[in-house]
Amino acid sequence: MEIRLAIVISDDMTLPAWEARMLGELGKLGAVSGIAFITSQKKEIPESSQFYRLFSRFENWWFGDENDAFKEISIVARENYPVFNSGDTNAIAEFSPDIIYHSCLVKVEEWIFTPKYGRWEIRFGAGEYANSTVPAF
């Protein structure tokens, strides 16, 4: 069974590195027959504490940028996949995705169109912390 996948990304056409790698692996499996991108607004990231910023600087110095899972990667240079604006529901419906996956950095919007296998997203945290705006500390 092959699926058509639409990926909701930020309007600056970027994805976190870990999501880009995950989607690349999906493409290698041969189960995806079509991919499209849907642009949407980024989530507002709250100002982090001074201790978290200090830790983050240390972590980036110690491990380097190449291991930063949230380093943003541009998808502009990717293959010729269609790109839709989130407000263009007719074009999205015409593409007919089986799944719409929301990047962890975009706002989840309500649409009239619901794909065959639903809308997916990954949330970090558990229980009451799943929707927390505080990244750590």
Could you give a short description of this structure?
The chain is of the alpha/beta class and 137 residues long. The protein is built from three helices and seven strands; from the N terminus they run ββαβαββαββ.
Structure, described:
The chain has 3 helices and 7 strands. 24% of the residues lie in helices and 24% in strands. By secondary structure, it is α/β, with parallel strands linked by helices. The strands form 2 sheets. The chain has a 5-stranded parallel β-sheet with strand order 5-3-1-6-7, with helices on one face. The protein has helices at residues 17-28, 50-63, 89-95, and strands at residues 3-10, 14-16, 32-40, 72-74, 83-85, 99-102, 119-121. The chain starts with a strand and ends in a 16-residue tail after the last strand. The protein is globular and about 50 Å long. The mean pLDDT is 79.
Write the layout of secondary structure elements.
Layout: E1 3-10, E2 14-16, H1 17-28, E3 32-40, H2 50-63, E4 72-74, E5 83-85, H3 89-95, E6 99-102, E7 119-121
Parallel strand pairs: 1-3, 1-6, 3-5, 6-7
Antiparallel strand pairs: 2-4
Rg on CA atoms, Å: 16 Å
The chain-level structural class is alpha/beta
Cα distance spanning the termini: 44 Å
Strand order of the largest sheet: 5-3-1-6-7
Question: Proportion of β residues?
Answer: 15-25%
Q: Provide the helix percentage.
A: 10-25%
Strand/helix succession: EEHEHEEHEE
So what's the overall shape? globular
Helix tally?
3
Strand elements, count: 7
Average predicted local confidence, pLDDT: 79
Low-pLDDT runs: none
Largest sheet: number of strands, sense, barrel closure: 5 strands, parallel
